């Protein structure tokens, strides 16, 4: 596949399709009823239909493209926080003041907003926290605080990227593990794992876990400010609606995490040592429309190879190097909601993956049950 230069407004324009969700919030708030269904309909089903229409895209941009040429690509991630912030807190004020929305209509509205902040906001936050500029990292932190999941930054950067597909990584879904069991495990283990990672990193520098450099102080302050704002705008009802959209967003994030690495494990080499991360440790998809909405998140193997590579420059890995999903991420996440259907579709693919890449492993039970030793020197 020939490299191309992605710079300019026209190549970036499809990645701005996320903005199409914002008018749908206005419609759902103003008209009530079942208009909120337009939001999950857009993010899950319309995009999947567009995948069928536009097909796949396996072309690769020139990875040496200068950052300055990516202005319009970067811009959509930079402007997203104020838009999402206005959507969440504007809706809290409106829903608690307007008299025409019933309780169920308010829940529907904030379910839709949670789909927006989870499907789009988390993906953009993920892109931003991987970058080196102060502005982008702060915007990433603000997006995470708006869904009460600030520890994701620590867990993702210090744990997931180092120890994905090993027992140390809570968000690597095990073979045959249903999503709902996985979700409960991640909610339980993720914050604790992130805290231990920061504590150990500070200890290596000779600092206490309570040192002001611990980002958990920032996480607490930002999340506390969001909670207080929800209370100020809508009282207890406003806080409840804010928390509900956060829960929906977290569910959206973790179901994508579930899909990305389901059943894919790094080989244990003995004595707590594991092979290096390789392209075949992530599920990929080349469906064009989903990659527009999720800013190339489905090129996940390359992201693990070069975590700071900006999304327009992520490279596609072919089926000979990385496992491919039959459908785009939105369709696969819907399938994951029904574990028997998910296993029927995905377990044969995992077994084929094992035979191809690890024919020498005869007993997969320790991998399936998460019983292998923790990696040596794991944070």
From TrEMBL:
InterPro entries in UniProt: AlkB/XylM, FA_desaturase_dom
Stored CDD domains: Alkane-hydroxylase
> According to its UniProt record, where is this protein located?
Cell inner membrane
Question: What region holds the Fatty acid desaturase domain?
Answer: 107-333
Q: Name any one Pfam family assigned in the record.
A: FA_desaturase
For this UniProt record, give its keywords in alphabetical order, as a comma-separated list. Answer: Cell inner membrane, Cell membrane, Iron, Membrane, Metal-binding, Monooxygenase, Oxidoreductase, Transmembrane, Transmembrane helix
The regions listed as transmembrane in this protein's record are 15-38, 75-95, 107-125, 216-233
Topology class, membrane: Multi-pass membrane protein
Record-stated family: Belongs to the fatty acid desaturase type 1 family. AlkB subfamily.
Q: What PANTHER family does this protein map onto?
A: ALKANE 1-MONOOXYGENASE 1
Q: What is this protein called?
A: Alkane 1-monooxygenase
Q: Which organism is it from?
A: Paracoccus sediminis
Q: What is the lineage of its organism?
A: Bacteria, Pseudomonadati, Pseudomonadota, Alphaproteobacteria, Rhodobacterales
């Amino acid at each position: 596949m020939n490299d191309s230069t992605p710079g300019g407004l026209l190549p970036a324009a499809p990645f701005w399709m996320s903005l199409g969700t914002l008018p749908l919030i206005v419609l759902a708030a103003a008209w009530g009823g079942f208009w909120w269904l337009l939001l999950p309909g857009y993010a899950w089903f319309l995009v999947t239909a567009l995948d069928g229409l536009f097909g796949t895209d396996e072309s690769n941009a020139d990875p040496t493209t200068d950052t300055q040429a990516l202005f319009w690509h970067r811009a959509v991630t930079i402007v997203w926080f104020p838009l999402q912030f206005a959507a969440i807190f504007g809706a809290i004020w409106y829903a608690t003041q307007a008299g025409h929305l019933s309780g169920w209509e308010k829940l529907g509205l904030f379910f839709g907003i949670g789909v927006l902040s989870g499907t789009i906001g988390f993906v953009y936050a993920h892109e931003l926290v991987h970058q080196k500029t102060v502005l982008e990292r702060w915007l990433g932190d603000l997006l995470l605080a708006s869904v009460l999941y600030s520890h994701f930054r620590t867990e993702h950067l210090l744990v997931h990227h180092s120890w994905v597909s090993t027992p140390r990584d809570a968000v690597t879904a095990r073979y045959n593990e249903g999503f709902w069991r996985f979700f409960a495990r991640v909610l339980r283990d993720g914050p604790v794992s992130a805290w231990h990672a920061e504590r150990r990193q500070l200890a290596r520098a000779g600092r206490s876990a309570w040192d002001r450099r611990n980002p958990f102080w920032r996480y607490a302050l930002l999340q506390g400010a969001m909670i207080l704002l929800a209370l100020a705008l809508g009282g207890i009802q406003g806080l409840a609606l804010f928390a509900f959209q956060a829960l929906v967003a977290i569910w959206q994030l973790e179901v994508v995490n579930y899909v990305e690495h389901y059943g894919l494990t790094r080989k244990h080499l003995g004595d707590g040592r594991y092979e290096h991360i390789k392209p075949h440790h992530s599920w990929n998809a080349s469906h064009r429309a989903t990659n527009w909405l999720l800013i190339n998140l489905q090129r996940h193997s390359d992201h693990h190879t070069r975590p700071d590579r900006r999304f327009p420059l992520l490279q596609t890995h072919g089926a000979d190097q990385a496992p491919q999903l039959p459908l785009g991420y939105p369709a696969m996440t819907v399938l994951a909601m029904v574990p028997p259907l998910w296993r029927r579709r995905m377990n044969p693919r995992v077994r084929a993956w094992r035979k191809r890449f690890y024919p020498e492993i005869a007993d997969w039970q320790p991998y399936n049950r998460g019983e292998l030793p923790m990696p040596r020197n794991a944070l």
